[in-house]
Amino acid sequence: MWIKAIGLVGVLVWASAVQASLEPGAKAVRQNAESLGLNRDRFVRGEVVEVKPSRSGMLCLTGWSHPKLDAKTIARLATETEFGTFRKVRKGDRVGFKTAGLRPGVYNVSLIDGSEIKAAKEIVIAYPENYVFKLNDPLLHGIKNAWNGHPKAQEYDKHYSVVTVQSQIGWAELQPERDRFDFSKLDTLLAWSAYTQKPAIFKFNAPAPEWIFDYVAHVGGKSPLDDQGRGGGTSRREKAKAPQFWSPAYKQFYHEMIQALAAHVAASPHRKWFLGLRVQPNAFNEEAWHYRFNGQEMQIAGISPDRGTWIPPRNGDPIYPPLLEADNYKEAKQYFRDVIGFYQEAFHPLGIYCFLRPYLEVDQDLNLNLSGYYANAYTVCMGTDAAASRPKPISPRAQVYKKYTRELKKGAFHEDTYASFNGDGWNAKHGKKMNYNVSPRSPEKEIYWRQFLKLYEGVTMSAWGGTELFRLDIPAYQAALDVFMKYAGGEMDPAKTEHAWMVFAGYCDWSGKNIQLRNVGYWLTEDDSSKTETVVDASDDHRAFMLGSIREKETTLSVASEFRQSHMGKSAKVSIEWLAEPGDAWEVFADGKRVGGARGTHNGFQIDEFELRALPSRIAIRKQRGNAKFHRVEVGLDG
Fold first, then answer.
1. Is the peptide bond before 224 cis (omega within 30 degrees of 0)?
2. The whole model's pTM is what?
3. How far is Cα 248 from Cα 313, in angstroms, rounded to an integer?
4. Which is more confident, 19 or 459?
C-alpha cells in the first residue's frame, strides 16, 4: 500500500517493539494535526494520499476514527486489520498510500511517538461523485450499523467494517400535525451519511402521530378514559395505543405520508445516500401482529374478539367493521398488499430499495404469496429474527427468507436482536432451561453462530446494533464480524469471491435429535456427511458450537466447478481451522496428492495452511492419530 516500502521482516519486528512499549492507558494527544503535512481531508477512492510529517515517529493509517482511540489501539488497528497500515518515518519524509483497495469511509491518520499520539487528522475516502449504489456491489457487503442516531453509536459508523447505517424516525416526529411535516431529522441523518460515506436505510414507524386518533379508532391507553374518550397515563406503556390500521382512513393517511416522504427525498441534495427503507405494514411499532402495553401481550386491532374495547375517533367515520381474521384473513391480506404497493410506487421510480419481511408467507396462517413483489429488483429482504439456534436454518422462516435472497442472488440485511443477552434470563424467569445441544450456550457463541445462519440465508449486510458494536474488544465479537465480512456476498458470483469454504455444523429439528441439514458454506461441499459427525464441545470458545470429527479414516470435500473455472490457473491455499489436543494428527490431500499434515502440540484452536499450485477439484482430510475436531475448511486464492 505504501509507495515507499521497507523490508517486511524489519517492519514487523519494529512494530512489535513499538506496540509493546505502548501503555494500555496511554492518553491520546490529538493536536498539531498540521505537523502531518496533510493539507486535504477528503480524497476520492483511488487517489494517493501524500503525507509529509514535520517530526519523526510511527505514521499510522487506520480504518476507524474515534475520539477515544489511544495509541496502543491505533497501532493495533494499523498492523492487524485489512484497512490499516503504518510506516516508521523521519522528519521531512514524503510518503503516500493508495486508496484503491480501501472501503470508502472515515479514516484516521496518526503520528505516534512512543506511547503518545503527537498528531492526528480525520480524513474521508469518498465514493466517486456519480457512484450508483447497488446491493450486489461488494462494497456494500458487510456490517450495517442499526440505530445510528445515538451519538455513541454514530462513532461506529466510522468503523471500517460498517458499510451502511440505519436510522429510525417515528411517524409522529415526521408528521407532528395533520398538514405539517418535519424532515429536519431526516436531512441531518442524510448529511451524516454523506460525510461518513455510508448509505442509509430508514425505518419510519413508532409511534403513530397523536392526531391520527381523531380519525381512526384505537385500542389501548390507560383506563379510566379521559373526558374525550382517550386513554390517560404518562408512561409509554400507559399511553400505548394501537390504531385500527386496516381502516380506509388509516391507509389514506399512511399513503399520504409515504408520498410526501418520497417527494422530499427526491428533492434532497443527499438523495444518493438514501439507499432504502423498511416496508412497515403497521406504522406504530414492529411489523408483527402484537403490541405490548399495560403489562400484557394483547392481540391488536380486529383480532380482539371484544368489540367493546374499541374507542371510536372524534371525527370521521365510526369504527371500521370488518375483522382482520374474517373470510380467511381477506381484510388483512388486502391491507398488506396495499401498504407494500404504497412503498413500491413511491420509491422504486427513484431507484430506492424497499426492504420487506418475507415472513408474512409463514406467519399467522396468512399464506400470503410475496413472490410477485420480490420479482422487482428494488424489493428485497430484511429480517430481525436473528436469535441463533441449531433448528433455525431448517425453520420455515429461514427457508422462505433464503428463497428470496440466496436463491435469487439478491442482497439483503438481517438485524441482530438482543436475544443473546437476555435469552437465558427470560428462560430462567419462566422456569425453562436452555437445551445447549440445540442452542448456543453463551452470548459470545451466539453472536458468532448467528453470522453463519445469516450467511446460509444469503444475507449480505449483517445488521449490528450498538449493543454488539460496543463489544468489539471481546474476541468472539471481533471474530464474528471478521467471518461475516470475509464471506458476505460470496455466493452471488464465484468470479468475485476469493474463497470456497465450509463450516462443520449440524442443523436439527426442534427436538434437538434429528439432524436434517449438515454444514454450510460457499463453493465447498463435503461429499458424504456421514463420514463425519457433529460435535458440540464443552469449552467456552465461541467456535466450539460448530465442530466435526472424522468417523473412521477420512472425509473428502469438493470445490464447485463454477469456482474453479472462474479462477483457472491461479495458485491456491488450503486453510483448516481445528480444535487441537496433544497427540492429534491428520494430513490433507489435494486431488489425491498429499500436500501436508498437522499435529496438535497444545490444547486449543489452531489454523494450518497448505500452499497449492492450482485450485483443486477435491481435497481430503485423513485422520492419523487421536480424534481431531474440525471447525472450518477454506480453499482460497493465494495472494
1. yes
2. 0.88
3. 13
4. 459
